[in-house]
Amino acid sequence: MTGAAETVTRVLIVDDDPLLRAGLTMMLGGAPDLLVVGEAGDGSEVLPLVASLSPDVVLMDIRMPTMDGLAATETLRARPSAPEVIVLTTFDADEHVLRALRAGASGFVLKDTPPAEIVEAVRRVAAGQPVLSPAVTARLIARVASSPADARRAEARSRLSGLNPREREIAVAVGQGKANAEISAELYLSVPTVKTHISRILAKLELNNRVQIALLAHDAGLLDAELEG
């Protein structure tokens, strides 16, 4: 019989504040299923540390002196088998957060988030669940995203054109901030069927999570009526 070691999540902490890193290390180290495998003070250290330490989740600060967390996230998430990224920020609706989400971050946590919630956020991301509720996704888009440039809109519409009508409906519903249960009720589908459609949408569009589906639907102009309403 095997023990709980099989399910330990390896975490890398990246922040230029040594006190914050120490606090996060102590906080996460108190959870039996989490293991802090390393720390970095700048985004430029991320790739070599990921290569040597193989973390499952990276807690990534945005503002760092040499390479910021945005560039580090974009570089990291472009690589195959990249770890999940949770952005650390002081603002809950910020253009930098939006850019990190576009790059494939699985969500964000505020630096003053209660310890238990940060621990739970790492667990959720390790399990493949974005750390952004549907409501927060919709609010973030509504507050931060300005009207996309014509080129971005055209590209988004071109990518979405590969979806069938049902998948397109679900992509729009995800963009509107609806949870799977709400989409299920609205479209008369079972929740497992909704999940299957979302998995297919992610595969077709080569996206990492439902937050990116929402952003793509926004870029395509499919949520304009929802945001204006």
Could you give the order of strands across the largest sheet?
2-1-3-4-5
Specify the overall morphology. Answer: globular
Which runs of at least 5 residues are low in confidence (pLDDT < 50)? 1-5, 225-229
Q: Please name the CATH architecture of the largest domain.
A: 3-Layer(aba) Sandwich
Q: How much helix, percentage-wise, in residues?
A: 40-55%
Percentage beta strand: 5-15%
Average pLDDT figure: 86
CATH H-level superfamily title of the largest domain: Response regulator
Judged by helices, strands and strand pairing, the structural class is alpha/beta
Tally of separate domains? 2
Topology as a string of helices (H) and strands (E)? EHEHEHEHEHHHHHHHH
Largest sheet: 5 strands, parallel
Q: What count of helical segments does DSSP give?
A: 12
Overall strand count:
5
CATH topology of the largest domain: Rossmann fold
CATH class of the largest domain: Alpha Beta
Radius of gyration, Cα only, in angstroms?
18 Å
Distance between the first and last residues' Cα = 56 Å
Keywords: DNA-binding, Phosphoprotein, Transcription, Transcription regulation
Protein name: Response regulator
Domain HTH luxR-type: 156-221
InterPro entries: CheY-like_superfamily (IPR011006), NreC/VraR/RcsB-like_REC (IPR058245), Sig_transdc_resp-reg_C-effctor (IPR016032), Sig_transdc_resp-reg_receiver (IPR001789), Tscrpt_reg_LuxR_C (IPR000792), WalR-like (IPR039420)
